[in-house]
């Protein structure tokens, strides 16, 4: 994108995945972008996430795919087994296109790559500024921080401040709710998962879920790492902590003995972190001179591994919508919401529907899942639908998948099988 004739003043709240990605594209397009981030000294922390083909293509649009991929671990399939060792699902990316694969990456790698690129693109980044609200005056918005400091006025405010956005009050209709379940995470040196190129999951009913994600290399380190996650209901966290490492270790090993070398590295529960998630639903994703991106717009359970990927696609779509109507921000925002409606709607629906099958106390749901899901191995159509959902391009049963015009030539995309 070349420089625009009349640059917009754009305020971005939050320097996470969505905020930094859209700051890069909009600053490169010639707009004057100011990013306001509440953390005073943002650092590359976190655990493993899966970068799906959609997220990879969005990064390619940003010119950052190689940099991230060099520090990632290639994932060719997701395999989920039951406690008795029987396979519940086996989903190879190659089922819909041999060129597709996932990338296990450390969240910090994505953060530091995007953050550095946003600075390099010319965005002004102010850290330690916690935005609390915004004021609309005519065709501009001003952001107000917790100390009463005013930032702007901006032609457009991009709210990318995560699932507990301070700016939700500016949205039309918004519903936000914490999930009763979360996940324990631990990241350690990889004892040998990476060569299998597999995201392994093990389940026992809907109550127990264990996973191993090869995570590439952490920021500043050159040794391969793996992330292990364990599902836990939020209100059982204190009991888990009180029971201690030995009890947890036995429980995990009963489900999957491959966890042993990972658990052997732990002397206490200190390095094990707990993540909670929220569900955010909003319609539309924009208001007057404001648009919500990433978790601020559509936070969901990480069951389908899509959050960061959706945030990256949001950023690319918003930059394209603004490029198509550079002199008409309200029109660009309407176009943005319309462009994202089907894709985001599908993943919000699918995540809400699938999460209780993997994270709940329901015996019935676990039993039904164990009865139905293994058949996907024998019915190609069913399996490909599940892979398509994992890849990140699904838009619903009767709709064509999301085309991936983000970077691949259109001709290549036609070959992705329905
Ligand atoms: C356990 C777990 C596993 C996950 N696994 C995956 C996965 O495998 N694949 C995947 O794609 N996604 C995964 N996700 C989801 C993914 O991490 C998020 O969807 C993604 O990070 C969202 O990016 P974001 O930019 O919208 O929000 P965030 O990354 O949360 O960034 C928000 C930013 O805004 C800043 N901020 C917040 N409030 C303010 C304020 N008032 N003023 C200024 N700044 C503010 C924050 O400090 C932060 O920097 C997972 C999430 C969890 C919890």
Number of helices: 13
The CATH class of the domain at 9-74 and 106-177 and 279-360 and 381-413 turns out to be Alpha Beta
The percent of residues in helical segments reads 25-40%
Q: Which molecules other than protein and nucleic acid are bound?
A: flavin-adenine dinucleotide
Structural class: alpha/beta
CATH 4th-level superfamily of the domain at 9-74 and 106-177 and 279-360 and 381-413: FAD/NAD(P)-binding domain
Shape summary: globular
- Beta-strand level of the residues, as a percent range? 25-35%
* CATH second-level architecture of the domain at 9-74 and 106-177 and 279-360 and 381-413: 3-Layer(bba) Sandwich
Descriptors:
FAD/NAD(P)-binding domain, binds flavin-adenine dinucleotide, 33% helix, 7-stranded mixed sheet
Fold blueprint:
Elements: E1 9-13, H1 17-28, E2 32-37, E3 48-51, H2 53-61, H3 65-69, E4 73-75, E5 77-82, E6 87-92, E7 102-106, H4 107-120, E8 124-127, E9 131-137, E10 140-145, E11 150-154, E12 156-159, E13 173-189, E14 198-204, E15 208-217, E16 224-233, H5 237-243, H6 245-255, H7 260-263, E17 273-283, E18 286-287, E19 290-292, H8 295-298, H9 307-324, H10 329-358, H11 363-372, H12 380-391, H13 410-413
Parallel strand pairs: 1-2, 1-12, 2-8, 5-14, 12-19
Antiparallel strand pairs: 3-7, 4-7, 5-6, 9-10, 10-11, 13-16, 13-17, 14-15, 15-16, 18-19
């Amino acid at each position: 994108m070349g420089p625009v004739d009349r640059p917009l003043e754009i305020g971005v709240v939050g320097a996470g995945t969505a905020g930094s990605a859209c700051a890069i594209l909009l600053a490169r397009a010639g707009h004057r972008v100011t990013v306001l981030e509440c953390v005073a000294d943002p650092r590359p922390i976190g655990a493993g996430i899966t970068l799906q083909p959609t997220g990879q293509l969005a990064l390619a649009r940003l010119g950052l795919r190689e940099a991230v991929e060099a520090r990632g671990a290639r994932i060719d399939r997701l395999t989920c087994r039951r406690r008795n060792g029987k396979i519940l699902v086996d989903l190879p990316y190659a089922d819909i296109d041999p060129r597709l694969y996932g990338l296990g990456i450390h969240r910090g790698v994505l953060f530091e790559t995007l953050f550095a690129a946003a600075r390099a693109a010319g965005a002004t980044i102010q850290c330690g500024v916690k935005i609390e609200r915004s004021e609309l005056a005519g065709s501009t918005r001003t952001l107000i921080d917790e100390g009463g400091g005013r930032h702007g006025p901006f032609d457009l405010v991009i709210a990318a401040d995560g699932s507990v956005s301070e700016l939700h009050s500016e949205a039309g209709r918004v519903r936000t709710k914490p999930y009763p379940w979360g996940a324990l995470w631990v990241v350690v040196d990889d004892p040998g998962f990476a060569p299998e190129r597999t995201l392994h999951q093990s389940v026992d009913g809907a109550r127990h879920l264990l996973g191993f994600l090869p995570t590439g290399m952490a920021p500043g380190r050159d040794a391969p790492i793996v992330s292990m996650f364990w599902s836990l209901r939020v209100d059982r966290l204190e009991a888990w902590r009180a029971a201690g490492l030995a009890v947890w270790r036995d429980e995990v090993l009963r489900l999957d003995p491959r966890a042993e070398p990972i658990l052997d590295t732990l002397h206490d529960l200190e390095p094990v972190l707990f993540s909670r998630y929220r569900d955010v639903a909003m319609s539309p994703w924009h208001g007057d001179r404001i648009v919500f991106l990433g978790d601020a717009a559509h936070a969901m359970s990480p069951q389908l591994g899509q959050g960061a990927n959706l945030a990256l696609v949001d950023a690319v779509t918003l930059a394209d919508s603004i490029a198509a109507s550079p002199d008409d921000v309200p029109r660009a925002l309407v176009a943005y919401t319309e462009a994202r409606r089907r894709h985001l709607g599908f993943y919000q629906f699918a995540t809400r529907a699938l999460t209780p099958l993997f994270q709940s106390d329901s015996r019935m749901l676990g039993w039904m899942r164990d009865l139905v899901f293994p058949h996907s191995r024998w019915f190609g159509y069913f399996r490909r639908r599940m892979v398509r959902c994992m890849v990140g391009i699904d838009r619903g049963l009767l709709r064509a998948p999301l085309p991936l015009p983000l970077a691949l030539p259109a001709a290549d995309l036609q070959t992705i099988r329905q």
